[in-house]
Amino acid sequence: MTSPVYVVLGAGPGLGLAVARRFAQEGYVAVLAGKSRADAEPLAETLAGEGHQAQGVGVDLTDPAAITGIIAGVGTEHGRIDVLHFNPSAWREKDPLHLTVPELLEDVTLGAGALLPAVQAAHPFFADGARVLVTGSAAADKPSKAAASLGVQKAAVRNLVTSLDATLAPQHRAVAVQVNGVLGREGPFSPPPIAEAMWQAVARPDEEWTPHVAYDG
User: Fold this and answer.
1) What's the order of all strands across the beta sheet hosting 126-137?
2) Angle between helices 191-203 and 15-24 (to 10 degrees)
3) Domains along the chain?
4) Are strands 173-179 and 212-215 parallel, antiparallel or unpaired?
5) Number of alpha carbons in the 13 Å side-chain half-sphere of residue 116
6) What's in the keyword line of the UniProt record (predicted)?
7) pTM of the entire structure?
8) pLDDT by residue (tens digit) across 77-104?
9) Bridge partners of 77?
10) Cβ proximity of 132 and 110 under 8 Å
11) What's residue 1's pLDDT?
12) CA pseudo-torsion sign 189, 216, 20, 115
């Protein structure tokens, strides 16, 4: 396999599909991992219908063993992983007076902790110059009291990216693209321009690399 491989965890019909499309347009094989194969396969079929190489797989992102199995399977099948995109987050409408510790830990496991087994499983398959890409959010700095766990997830995963980048460098790098706005169907915070910003963040040369990029629309 000579084509570069892009893998997105937490793929959905919005931003996940848009970013996968942007990388596919650059010649990447796009592997979209959703909650189930039934969720992911239609996304892959959409890209395939546009002339791209794509496949859909399902994975439970709260299960480290399942993550390891899926990522190792993709790496073995394709012989390489060039971009690992971590896109999930958990939305739970509970403020800090009602959010329980088990609920907080469950959400952080999905929205931040799942990145660890994903990178660990992908690392043996990383091609030269491979990148870890993480979808960040303004919630890391301005959390909503109505969904208190989201800000913790995004602050935690941003912090983790800093450590990952330092650990992977110089052969591989990691970046969190912090989206400082509310996702919408149109305008600067719609999926296509955000996907372009994520492509640009990953495509930067090493001499311009930083582990954090802000997208302000």
Assistant:
1) 54-58, 29-34, 5-9, 81-86, 126-137, 173-179, 212-215
2) 50
3) 5-215 (3.40.50.720)
4) parallel
5) 13
6) Oxidoreductase
7) 0.96
8) 999 999 999 999 999 999 999 999 999 9
9) none
10) no
11) 55
12) negative
